[in-house]
Amino acid sequence: MAKQILTLNQISLKGLERLPRDCYEIASEFSQPDAILLRSHKLKAEDIPESVLAIGRAGAGTNNIPVAECSARGIPVFNSPGANANAVKELVAAGLLLGSRGIIEGIQYVDTLASITDKAEMNQVLEAHKKNFKGSELVGKTLGVVGLGAIGSMVAEMALTMGMDVVGYDPALSVEAAWRLSSQVRKADTLSALFARCDYITLHLPVLDSTRGLINAELLSAVREGTCLLNFARQEIVDEDALVEALNGGNLRKYIADFPAPALIGRKDVILMPHIGASTDEAEDNCAIMAADQIRDFLENGNICNSVNFPNLVLERVTGCRLSVTNANVPRILGSLLSILADDDINVIDMLNKSRDEIAYNLIDIESHASDEVLERMRALDGVVNVRLIGDCD
Ligand SMILES: NC(=O)c1ccc[n+]([C@@H]2O[C@H](COP(=O)([O-])OP(=O)(O)OC[C@H]3O[C@@H](n4cnc5c(N)ncnc54)[C@H](O)[C@@H]3O)[C@@H](O)[C@H]2O)c1
Ligand SMILES: O=C(O)CC[C@@H](O)C(=O)O
């Protein structure tokens, strides 16, 4: 029977094409889907049907998904790390230029000249006014990058090639991300040290309980005069009241962000975009392809790659008969699962077990068919969250 994939946002066709139509049905309405593919749709736990085995986020941030509830229900949540990083990096380049030159004000001014019909007169008027739109160059200015993952590291590299000095802050930097980072990026030991020494500051960290409101009054009141803050990460990371106060106080010269809010719209010192950081053909294709491939590999093989709540686990298929088991990460469950198989004379050919936080996940390849009764005995074990028979032995 074809598997059903529920899409809750527009997902690029290139990604959906990775799910062959003879095996997958894809629609924006299903009552009992096998998996969900989405982008920024705000998904509530109560809206996830019991049938759902996995959720794929075509994008980086998973703050729109109730990840903790998914973990408790044994549902892996996948994202597409790095797949839209270049798109965001390019928009940050635009943000830096919008923050350093009178581009928007200049364009708005030119629009006011529509009533002048004589070219020479128009030229004379604008040449007299262009001094109002003078900016300054980025070369030699200091950019602070908060969060040096997929996007932050690309932004840092780009700023270096533009002749900027770059300071970075990331207390949770992965080894892989550290390898990607240019040695010219200087390290700030604290966020306040970074905020106090930069002309431009750009945010590239996820919104988590620990980062909600992280950019607060204390940091914003310590910025150098003329500082420009860019936020292409998430609105919730910046304390809005503190931001407005810092802009009113004058030291923070400009706020450029991908997340409009009523209190910020219409201010001359704020430039807002409608969450278009990842809105390029390339990023949408990359994210959708990655998310679709990961969901397919999970549904067909139980493999897990790029999950934000489950351990990564990939086991090559040696037999058509595979069990996947999600259980609480506590002793003795694995032994009990294997005893049930042994009691039924089912030989295990290959297996992998990995854990992450409270979750343990197992792939067990078996030589002969496991009956419904065997599966039910496994499901009945204390601490077992779900058991799935993937494929058949025949
Ligand atoms: N505007 C957009 O359309 C758009 C597009 C993509 C991503 N994003 C946002 O950007 C965020 C980053 O994306 P990414 O792909 O670079 O993710 P990533 O996971 O590759 O990098 C995030 C980095 O932030 C670091 N970090 C975590 N807590 C931190 C803290 N307290 N201080 C400093 N650094 C911290 C992590 O260690 C990691 O290196 C996403 O979570 C998402 O919210 C926005
Ligand atoms: O899907 C989008 O357009 C936005 C994605 C972006 O916010 C992300 O976190 O990857």
Write structural notes for this entry.
With 394 residues, the chain is of the alpha/beta class. It has 4 domains: 1-84 and 279-310, NAD(P)-binding Rossmann-like Domain (Rossmann fold, 3-Layer(aba) Sandwich), CATH 3.40.50.720; 102-135, no CATH class; 136-272, Rossmann fold; 311-394, 2-Layer Sandwich (Alpha-Beta Plaits), CATH 3.30.70. It has helices at 13-16, 67-72, 85-100, 103-111, 119-129, 150-161, 175-180, 191-197, 217-221, 240-249, 281-301, 333-343, 372-379, and strands at residues 3-7, 24-27, 35-38, 54-57, 77-78, 142-146, 165-169, 186-187, 200-203, 227-231, 252-257, 270-272, 322-328, 348-356, 359-366, 384-390. The protein has a 7-stranded parallel β-sheet, with helices on both faces. A 5-stranded parallel β-sheet has the order 2-1-3-4-5. The chain is elongated and about 90 Å long. Bound molecules: nicotinamide-adenine-dinucleotide and (2R)-2-hydroxypentanedioic acid. The site of (2R)-2-hydroxypentanedioic acid (2HG) has 8 residues, from loops.
List the helices and strands and how they pair.
Blueprint: E1 3-7, H1 13-16, E2 24-27, E3 35-38, E4 54-57, H2 67-72, E5 77-78, H3 85-100, H4 103-111, H5 119-129, E6 142-146, H6 150-161, E7 165-169, H7 175-180, E8 186-187, H8 191-197, E9 200-203, H9 217-221, E10 227-231, H10 240-249, E11 252-257, E12 270-272, H11 281-301, E13 322-328, H12 333-343, E14 348-356, E15 359-366, H13 372-379, E16 384-390
Parallel strand pairs: 1-2, 1-3, 3-4, 4-5, 6-7, 6-9, 7-8, 9-10, 10-11, 11-12
Antiparallel strand pairs: 13-15, 13-16, 14-15
Helix pairs in contact: 3-6
(2R)-2-hydroxypentanedioic acid (2HG) is lined by residues 39-40, 59-61, 84, 278-279.
